Amino acid sequence: MERFHSLIQRGSLEHGARLPAERVLAEQLKVSRGSVREAIRTLELQGLVVSKQGSGTFINTQSLNAVATLMTSSLIDDLGAGEAQLKDIFEVRHLLEPQLAALAAQRATPEDVERLASILIEQQRQIMEGETGVHADTAFHFALATATHNTALVKVVSAVEDVLRQSRDQTLQQPGRPQRSLDSHREILEMIRSGDHQGARSAMEHHLTVVEPSSTYPISQEQAAPTANRQHIVNNNQKRP
Q1: Which CATH number is 2-62 given?
Q2: What is the largest CA-CA distance in the chain?
Q3: Residue 187 and residue 94: Cα distance in Å, rounded?
């Protein structure tokens, strides 16, 4: 599967290209025809190929599912190179998720809000039982994307979250971190429940800053302060000569 992803990412298999027959692919890749057949079925589920009866199987890289799959594959490969790539991913989240939270505050339905609240109840249960709460933590961010009712955003966030799940559990091992994450999620939810899109954006910016590893994003006094106190700190700093 990874070899097919690599061929598509390098442009060796371009959009619209017809795949060779199973026998030919098996010989070229030096694998069994059964392995090729299974790989093609998976590629179909990922949206990366389209089978047309009587014509063959064709590469498809222009659907949302295909873009998300390739993004995830690329990010997972990059993570193996070290902290620099992880920092790049966090920067993407800093650019994307505050605006996503603001959009959710404007569009979330009562059902969306109820779903987010139920996830936080589950996160609290996991923490009380001594777990990190990583599964609920990930679910909250994905449900937030779903609350925007923007299919493209859901696909992009899904790709990023698949990668970040690998590092999130490690950072949640830090003392007090699971509870801080839960408290921050509650603040975001309250902004969304009240329809405060500016507050939701600010709360998400605060959340992303607080949850970053210190080696990646050092936390200033203003960034670490709760949302309600941040403006007070800014005002005090502005008064200083």
Answers
A1: 1.10.10.10
A2: 77
A3: 17
In the numeric block, the tokens 């106190």 are attached to 229
20: left (phi over 0), alpha (psi -120 to 50) or beta: beta
Q: Which amino acid is at 17?
A: A
- Mention every residue, 6+ apart, whose C-beta is less than 8 A from residue 186: 120
Separation CA 241–CA 227 (nearest Å): 25
Domain ranges in the chain are 2-62, 83-233
Render each residue's pLDDT in the chain as its tens digit; 241 residues.
667 777 777 777 888 899 999 899 989 888 888 888 888 887 887 788 898 888 899 988 877 677 667 766 666 665 554 566 667 777 778 888 899 999 999 999 999 999 999 999 999 999 999 988 888 998 899 899 999 999 878 877 776 776 666 666 667 778 888 999 999 999 999 999 999 999 999 999 999 887 655 445 554 444 444 444 444 333 444 444 4
Region 83-233: CATH code: 1.20.120.530
Does residue 69 contact residue 46 with C-beta atoms inside 8 Å? Answer: yes
- Residue 108 and residue 139 in contact, taking contact as beta carbons nearer than 8 Å: no
